[in-house]
Every structure is written in structure tokens, then in C-alpha cells.
Automatic annotation (TrEMBL):
Belongs to the class-I aminoacyl-tRNA synthetase family. CDD domains: TrpRS_core (cd00806). It holds the Pfam family tRNA-synt_1b. This is Tryptophan--tRNA ligase. A motif ('KMSKS' region) lies at residues 195-199. Catalyzes the attachment of tryptophan to tRNA(Trp). SUPFAM superfamilies: Nucleotidylyl transferase (SSF52374). It comes from Pseudoroseicyclus aestuarii. Its main location: cytoplasm. Keywords: Aminoacyl-tRNA synthetase, ATP-binding, Cytoplasm, Ligase, Nucleotide-binding, Protein biosynthesis.
Length: 332
């Protein structure tokens, strides 16, 4: 059976980008004929500095986001990465398979390291190797992610292929990224050429899953746009990144397509479209943020769910790690 794996870093509050590009789809995928495994990737978060006093709360917040949106801990395996030691172990083995040049070509590494590569942690450089371990530890066949993670999933395939080739086996699968529909690349509300991210400088550039209704309305109202009204067809959005982004958000939130949104709102001015978008976002997010807040009031319950998920994850992961070490000739 197909097996889905995906993860989210607890490196800041969850955004609308995380919701539309990831969590919303994770929930939908539980309904199909596949196993679903969802992780809070705390070992990835610490590749840049995290305050140890704040990290547990952020890890629980991401877990609460999954649960509040509808990830069901009985149907899916939900856990945090640090609880399953095999992730770090397989990542080490993959560090001996992956090549420096592959890591050097990663656009996220280039963006994050900038001109300061020498000052970055070795973990940030090897980040994709740990991500490949996350995925391949479960022999996951499909990985739902936003557009920004596509290159990392392709690198996962490169690592699997080189391992299989070097050790003369067909052990690791060629995992497919699942990136489709609107919402796979939500942009910053102040600059339609940049991605909406947890860690952007200004809070006005993103919608957080925990924002209240007034904040959401204010952020959409202040969102940058050009002055022209919505076009008559989607082609008219081509050179208008901010307008295109708001239409995409509307389409993703209402489970339709940009074409359908334009058909309904052709010629509308921002004074009409932005409040409609804000209302829609509040309608979808308010119940989730209320449930997140409730769940975060009981951290022990979140920890219990993640610990139980980790037990189930280990049952799949440990035999795959054991077989990997055996293939590589390591005595254990
Ligand atoms: P992270 O924590 O940055 O983001 C989590 C998920 O949200 C998606 N996403 C977006 N989608 C659309 N528009 C946006 N603006 C936007 N911002 C974020 C991301 O694409 C991702 O799907 N490296 C990963 C975490 C990871 C992982 C894995 C993912 C670690 N191991 C194994 C899949 C499988 C990351 O940093 O995601």
C-alpha cells in the first residue's frame, strides 16, 4: 500500500502557507487507501538556533495544529522526530552516501546561508540528508509538500538511487513528491515575489494559524496589491504576483480553482474582494485556532499522543534501519 510521510518544523508559529501547502492536505489524505505518517521535525528546527526554553512549546504547537485541523492520531501516526532515534541514525548513514556537491546546489541552503556559509551549522548544510532519512526510514512512497520542498524530495530520490546502486540492492523506493492544486506556494502579503514563511521579518507579511479574526482582516486589508481590479480571466493575473496570490489563497481555502474564483469575482475591486477573502479565511481558520488553543492548554495530553505515535513509528522504522546497517556491513 502507498505510504505517505510528511513533516513540519517547529521553528515558529504555523502560517497559512503551512496550512494550505501541507496540513490541509495531510488531513484529506487520511481518507484514502494509504498509511499516513506525520512528524514534527524538531531535529530540523535546531539546525538554526532555537531557545531550549521555547522549543517544547513550539513542538507542541505544531502537534496541536495537526490535531486541530483534523489529523486523527488513531488513523495517522503523529509524533516528533527526536523521539525516534532512527531518524538521526539513518541520517548519519546517508551522510556517507550523499555528496557535498548535491547539498551545495540546494536553493534553500543557498538562500539561508547566503554569503555566510562558513558561519552556518554543519546540520543546516546536511539538512536534506536528515530529510531523506525521515522519508526513507518508512519507505514512504509519497510526500505531500509545498513547492519549496520539491528539490529536497528530488534529492531524497538521488540518495535512494545512489544507495541502491552502491550496495547493489533495490532497498529504498523512489519517493514521489505530491504537489498539486492551488496553495502550493503562498506568497508574502507585502511582497508577492517572496514566499510566506514562519520566520519573515514582519508579522504583516503572513497570516498565522493563531491570528484572531480582526488581525486576519487587517492583514488582508493592508496586503499589497496593484490598483487594477480582478481581471476577466486567469491569464490576466500573469504579471500580477500579489493579485495572483490572493486569488490562489481564495481558491485553496474554498477548494476550487483560480479559474472558478475569477469567474465569480471578475472585475471586482480590492475593496470588495479583500473583505470576502478575509471572511473566508476566518471561517476556515477560526475553528482550528480555537481548537489549537484548547489543546495547548493540556500539554501532557499532546505529549502522550506524540509518545504513542513514536512507539508506532519505531515499529516501522527500526527494522528498516536494521536492514540498512546490515546491507552496509555494520555489525550491531
Ligand atoms: P516547513 O516547516 O518549512 O514547512 C512545512 C510544510 O509547509 C509547506 N509550506 C508552504 N506551502 C505553501 N506555501 C508556503 N508559503 C509554504 N511555506 C511552507 C512546506 O512546503 C512544507 O510542506 N524541510 C521541511 C520539513 C521536513 C519534511 C521532511 C517535509 C523535514 N523532513 C520529510 C516532508 C518530508 C520544512 O522545512 O518544512
Amino acid at each position: 500500500t502507498p505510504r505517505i510521510f510528511s513533516g513540519i518544523k517547529p521553528s515558529g508559529g504555523l502560517t497559512l502557507g503551512n496550512y494550505l501547502g501541507a496540513i490541509k492536505r495531510f488531513v484529506e489524505m487520511q481518507d484514502g487507501e494509504h498509511e499516513t505518517i506525520y512528524c514534527v521535525v524538531d531535529l530540523h528546527a535546531i539546525t538554526v538556533w532555537q531557545d531550549p526554553a521555547a522549543l517544547p512549546g513550539m513542538t507542541r504547537e505544531v502537534a496541536a495544529g495537526y490535531l486541530a485541523a483534523g489529523v486523527d492520531p488513531d488513523r495517522s501516526i503523529l509524533f516528533n522526530q527526536a523521539r525516534v532515534g532512527a531518524h538521526a541514525e539513518l541520517a548519519w548513514l546517508f551522510n556517507t552516501v550523499a555528496r557535498m556537491g548535491w547539498m551545495n546546489r540546494m536553493t534553500q541552503w543557498k538562500e539561508k546561508a547566503g554569503k555566510n556559509a562558513e558561519k552556518q551549522s554543519l546540520g543546516l548544510f546536511a539538512y536534506p540528508s536528515l530529510m531523506a532519512a525521515d522519508i526513507l526510514l518508512y519507505h514512504a512512497t509519497h510526500v505531500p509538500v509545498g513547492e519549496d520542498q520539491k528539490q529536497h524530495v528530488e534529492l531524497t530520490r538521488d540518495i535512494a538511487a545512489k544507495f541502491n546502486h552502491d550496495y547493489g540492492c533495490e532497498f529504498f523506493p523512489m519517493t514521489e513528491p505530491l504537489i498539486d492544486g492551488p496553495g502550493m506556494r503562498i506568497m508574502n502579503l507585502r511582497d508577492g515575489t517572496k514566499k510566506m514563511s514562519k520566520s519573515g521579518e514582519s508579522d504583516m507579511e503572513r497570516i498565522n494559524m493563531l491570528d484572531d479574526a480582526d488581525t486576519i482582516a487587517k492583514k488582508f486589508k493592508k496586503a499589497r496589491t496593484d490598483p487594477a481590479p480582478l481581471p476577466e480571466t486567469v491569464e490576466g493575473l500573469a504579471e500580477r504576483p500579489e493579485a495572483r496570490n490572493l486569488v490562489e489563497i481564495y481558491a485553496a481555502l474554498s477548494n476550487t480553482t483560480p479559474e472558478a474564483v475569477i469567474a465569480e469575482h471578475a472585475g471586482a475591486g480590492w475593496g470588495t474582494f479583500k473583505p470576502a477573502l478575509a471572511d473566508l479565511a476566518v471561517e476556515k481558520l477560526a475553528p482550528i485556532s480555537a481548537e489549537m488553543a484548547r489543546l495547548m492548554g493540556d500539554p501532557a495530553e499532546i505529549d502522550r499522543i506524540m509518545a504513542k505515535g513514536a512507539d508506532r513509528a519505531r515499529e516501522i522504522a527500526d527494522p528498516i534501519l536494521a536492514r540498512t546497517t546490515e546491507i552496509m556491513g555494520l555489525l550491531r
